[in-house]
Amino acid sequence: MRFDIVTLFPELFDPFLKVGITRRAFESAQVDVRFTNPRDFAVGNYRRVDDRPFGGGPGMVMLAEPLAQAVECVRSQRQDNAPVVLFSPIGERLNHQAVQNWAMSDGAILICGRYEGVDQRFIDAYVNQQISVGDFVLSGGELAAMVLLDSLARLQPGVLTDHESHQQDSFNPALGGLLDCPHYTRPESWQGQSVPEVLMSGHHEHIERWRHEQRLRLTEQHRPDILAAAKLAD
To answer: What b/e sequence results for 34-70 when a residue is b if at least 16 CB atoms lie within 10 Å of its CB, and e otherwise?
Structure first.
């Protein structure tokens, strides 16, 4: 799959693509990430990519034309119908199901907005989908793009050391969509706290039952909204 990122700051992605376990997906081009800077399509001595908003108000708005030319340039290289995605507060909330869908897709053109926002005319003309990573505002779409790329990269075959590891993640349908249970490692006793005895028993059925009970308890305590919607096993 290929993700083309339209951003004014491609250098922000450099450590993200080279550090951590998900780098395997990027280095192997399982998730092929490429960058296009709209400033390369700006005109004038200052190569401006933003201007003051009509109607007044604080901040600056990204110009439509450099973004449009950046997208057209990417389209000419890809020669496919990849969707154009903008990270935006009005977008659909990113969740596990959406990440799974993206992990099996051919990719997309990701628009990383900056400043006060993007000229609405560009959005109306080019954007097919908008995504939100939460009810808060970031300085730009770059971090949101990294969230999407990281979450789908770890689902690619061979990226995680144990290829079934992600099936034990919170929100995964394999766990009924519940939160994951607590985890423990050595030493057996730390600052007066001991590992639950059942985890030391070696009795796999009892261990799995305990873990399932813990998932239910944590989900009820912290995310009752998803507990109500989860399909629970008998």
So the answer is: ebbbbeebbeeeeeebbeeeeeeeeeebbbbebbbbb
Among the listed residues 89, 173, 182, 196, the single catalytic one is 89
pLDDT digits (tens, 9 = 90+) for 174-207: 888 999 999 999 999 999 999 999 999 999 999 9
> Is 220 assigned a catalytic role?
no
pLDDT beneath 70, residues of the chain? 163-164, 231-234
Q: Show the domains of the chain with their CATH numbers.
A: 2-153 (3.40.1280.10), 169-229 (1.10.1270.20)
The catalytically annotated residue of 4, 50, 66, 154 is: 154
**Quick check: is 169 catalytic?**
yes
114 an active-site residue?
no
Residue 217 annotated to the active site: no
Pick the catalytic residue: 23, 34, 75, 116? 116
